[in-house]
Specification:
CATH topology of the largest domain in chain A: Heat Shock Protein 90
Largest sheet of chain B: 5 strands, parallel
Shape of chain B: globular
Strand content of chain B: 15-25%
CATH superfamily of the largest domain in chain B: Response regulator
Strand order of the largest sheet of chain A: 2-4-5-7-6
Strand order of the largest sheet of chain B: 2-1-3-4-5
Distance between the termini of chain B: 25 Å
Number of domains of chain B: 2
Order of helices and strands of chain A: HHHHEHEEHEEHHEE
CATH class of the largest domain in chain A: Alpha Beta
CATH class of the largest domain in chain B: Alpha Beta
CATH architecture of the largest domain in chain B: 3-Layer(aba) Sandwich
Largest sheet of chain A: 5 strands, mixed
Structural class of chain A: alpha+beta
Number of domains of chain A: 3
Distance between the termini of chain A: 46 Å
CATH architecture of the largest domain in chain A: 2-Layer Sandwich
CATH topology of the largest domain in chain B: Rossmann fold
Oligomer: heterodimer
Order of helices and strands of chain B: EHEHEHEHEHEEEEHHHEEE
């Protein structure tokens, strides 16, 4: 019988547990009675030790020992149960928070779509009709983007990660170019700095497409939350243990109380309201980096010199 | 095709979807027959001989996958578009067994559906198995064993990443068709994002290196500027 079986038995059948605990004691008493009735004291010893008494004391001691052991086990058990209950509560809270945010994210485009449909039906001029159709299309686009990101997030846990050498400098250049090719960012400057001395940049092992997605999300975010005069910089270096990728901007910064929440799914900070996005970009970044055995960090200042730096640390290929 | 307007059997249990899709497809010059479950789709496919079937996956009575499997078992090779997404390797092998001619993920743009329908109809050889259901694809000295996930050139095994192999598979099962980067992203990667098109180009470069294919004089994969890619060589399917 294992420890766990014993534990279960203690919880299910307390009478059995009591019986088990007092068994040595009972046996001791029984032995002492028997000895007094049938046996003579041992004559060899000067201090006559009653065998029955020895058995009784031994039994008592054993019972106490067992009781202490059992109490310890029970306490451990209840602690474990409390921990499980706590983590279940947190999961449940997270789930409810996620659903509430999801509800909010779906509500907005649906409201826009509904209003647009009313306008299509009731509008008087062709201009109005075209505008309504355009609005409906954008609302649908927002929902599709949300759905696509939700799918990426759920896919991440399921699909096997490709583990191949990835050249980080090349990847960073590609993603910076990709972000700058968007019409809104064509005139924006992004500095790309890659340390080259003393040795060439080592590759990281991982899934190139996912790492590209993570970097892209951060570069696009940096451009999205800054305006033309503010700078965006992407830099990479190796510090012996990890490859460190930083995406920095001199934008308005993130309030300190929001810093710990921005990686949560569908969380939207005060700055992010009214700015397009699925609310899942940073959650995706964090998940991807985690899958590669790395860490994601953020630091931000709202006072001058203000700005935000996202740091990705990816283990170097051995 | 014997009929003037091809007949499409559209199976989806959501009346809002079929109610909007049917008139759209009719405007595009197709006859559309609507059913709301897999069992009816199975029966109508055998009794009405449509030119193409569009099957949703989640449907009452018999789901789309099962419907398609049973149709193929009874030797009905009507070209079929399955409204779902091909996922990872295991699912892809399953998809191969199903023998769908193309896949489209909801929510799709109706114009994309139309493009898929036209491409599938153009490729279809009536009554014959399509390339999508073939285990072994060959094109001159290039061969692709879809079951073993292996490709070889003149008998020499090619060292390809799983993604590049999946790209090759998609191109070879859609020969002589302009495949956009977005389409490849959706079919092979399962997701799309603005920088994704570059991701496709990276894999294409890998694939071309492995195939020793010169983009300026392509034997296999041609770049269509502003459009995407096209597999230009003839493809034969076996098994």
């Amino acid at each position: 019988m294992g420890k766990d079986d014993l534990n279960r038995l203690m919880i299910k059948k307390p009478w059995f547990y009591l019986l088990l605990l007092s068994l040595p004691l009972l046996l001791g008493v029984l032995a002492s009675v028997l000895a007094q009735v049938f046996w003579q004291p041992v004559p060899l010893l000067v201090f006559r030790i009653d065998i029955g008494m020895v058995a009784f004391v031994f039994g008592l001691f054993l019972s106490l020992l067992l009781a202490a052991f059992a109490t310890g086990m029970r306490r451990k058990e209840s602690q474990a149960q409390r921990a499980i209950a706590e983590s279940q509560r947190q999961t449940e809270e997270g789930r409810i928070r996620f659903l509430r945010r999801l509800d909010h994210e779906i509500k907005n485009p649906l409201t826009a779509l509904r209003a647009a449909l009313v306008n299509v039906r009731e509008c008087k001029t062709e201009d109005e009709r075209q505008r309504a159709i355009g609005n409906a299309g954008r609302a649908v686009g927002n929902m599709i983007r949300l759905l696509a990101d939700l799918r990426k997030l759920s896919d991440l846990g399921e699909r096997p990660l490709e583990r191949l050498p990835v050249e980080v400098p090349e990847l960073l250049q590609e993603m910076v170019d990709a972000a700058k090719s968007l019409p809104a960012y064509q005139r924006r400057e992004v500095n790309l700095l890659i340390s080259k001395v003393p040795s060439p940049f080592p590759p990281v092992t991982g899934d190139r497409d996912l790492l590209a997605l993570a970097v892209y999300n951060l570069v696009e975010n940096a451009l999205k939350f800054t305006s033309g005069e503010e700078a965006v910089e992407v830099r990479a270096l190796e510090d012996g243990r990890a490859i460190v990728i930083e995406i920095a901007d001199s934008g308005p910064g993130i309030p300190p109380d929001e810093l710990s929440k921005i990686f949560e799914e569908l969380y939207r900070g005060a700055n992010a309201r009214g700015i397009e996005g699925s609310g899942l970009g940073l959650a995706l970044v964090q998940r991807i980096v985690e899958l590669h055995g790395g860490q994601t960090e953020v630091r931000s200042r709202q006072d001058e010199p203000r700005g935000t730096v996202f740091t990705l640390r990816l283990p170097v290929r051995k | 095709m014997s009929r003037q307007n091809p007949l499409i059997l559209l199976a989806d249990d959501d009346p809002n979807i079929v109610d909007s899709l049917a008139p759209f497809l009719e405007r595009a010059g197709f006859h559309v027959m609507i059913v709301a479950d897999g069992q009816s789709a199975f029966e109508k496919a055998q009794s009405h001989h449509p030119d193409l079937i569009i099957l949703d996956v989640l449907m009452p009575r018999m789901d789309g996958r099962e419907t398609l499997r049973r149709l193929r078992q009874t030797n009905v090779w009507t070209p079929t578009i399955l409204l779902t997404q091909v996922g990872e390797a295991s699912e892809r092998a399953l998809a191969l067994e199903e023998g769908a001619d193309d896949y489209l993920n909801k929510p799709f743009d109706p114009h994309e559906l139309l493009a898929r329908i036209r491409a599938v109809l153009r490729r279809a050889r009536p009554g014959q198995r399509s390339l999508s259901a073939a285990w072994l694809l060959t094109s001159t000295e290039l061969s692709l064993d879809r079951r073993a996930r292996r490709a070889s050139l003149s008998g020499q095994a090619l060292d390809l990443t799983p993604k590049a192999l999946a790209v090759l598979e998609y191109l070879m099962t859609h020969p002589d068709e302009a495949v956009t980067r977005e389409r490849l992203l959706e079919a092979v990667w399962g997701w799309e994002y603005p920088a994704g098109t570059r991701t496709v180009d990276t894999r294409m470069a890998e694939l071309r290196r492995a195939l020793d294919d010169d983009p300026s004089q392509p034997r296999f994969i041609e770049t269509l500027p502003g459009e995407g890619y096209r597999f230009v060589a003839d493809v034969h399917g076996e098994g």
